[in-house]
Specification:
four-stranded mixed beta sheet, alpha+beta, single chain
Length: 179
């Protein structure tokens, strides 16, 4: 009996399957890493937006407080009330303005008006501007000095006020003005 020699096919050792599996693992790791990076960048962008909103609110409140002082809406007689501190009388700020929850009950705004920020005004006392020596001191005009500390916070849309605060920005200015 003649045996017909059939062509031999080389046996596959599964190399193609191994290469495909390694490539799938590499592509999967790259996809997961890319997704995590995108989520991180999204959170960073949202935090930047929250801070920008808080800073804009703080600046707006600071300007509001300055205009109230400059237009004469507030006088020295108003100091000693909530939000006004007369540092010359020994009164001081009993809170840390850099902590968002420290602003509860502080400042001159209340209710819904204080939902996005608040400010306090401190009377620093009388001073003179541009006095170079004692001779000029007697002829110079005394000015009242004030420090305004304004805090703005950015809020999320859901939840109670304290849990919605996402960013805090505090700005400060000092102004001098005549009586």
């Amino acid at each position: 009996m003649n045996q017909v020699n059939a062509p031999r096919h080389p046996r596959q050792q599964g190399m193609a399957l191994l290469v495909v599996l390694i490539m799938l693992i590499v592509v999967g790791v790259m996809a997961v890493t890319g997704n995590e990076d995108t989520q991180l960048q999204t959170r960073m962008l949202m935090n930047t937006q929250f801070y920008d909103n808080a800073y804009a609110e703080a600046e707006s409140l600071q300007q509001q407080a300055e205009s109230r002082l400059l237009e004469g809406e507030l006088t020295l007689d108003d100091f000693g009330e909530d939000g006004f501190y007369d540092l010359t009388a020994g009164e001081s700020l009993d809170f840390d303005p850099l902590q968002a929850d420290a602003w509860d009950g502080e400042g001159i705004l209340s209710g819904n008006a204080a939902a996005n920020g608040n400010y306090v005004i401190e009377y620093l006392g009388e001073t003179t501007e541009g006095v170079l020596n004692d001779d000029n001191l007697s002829s110079s005009r005394l000015l009242n000095a004030f420090r305004i500390t304004a805090a703005g916070w950015s809020l999320e849309s859901a939840g109670d006020l304290e849990s919605r605060k996402r960013a805090l920005a505090v700005v400060q200015s000092e102004i001098m003005m005549a009586d």
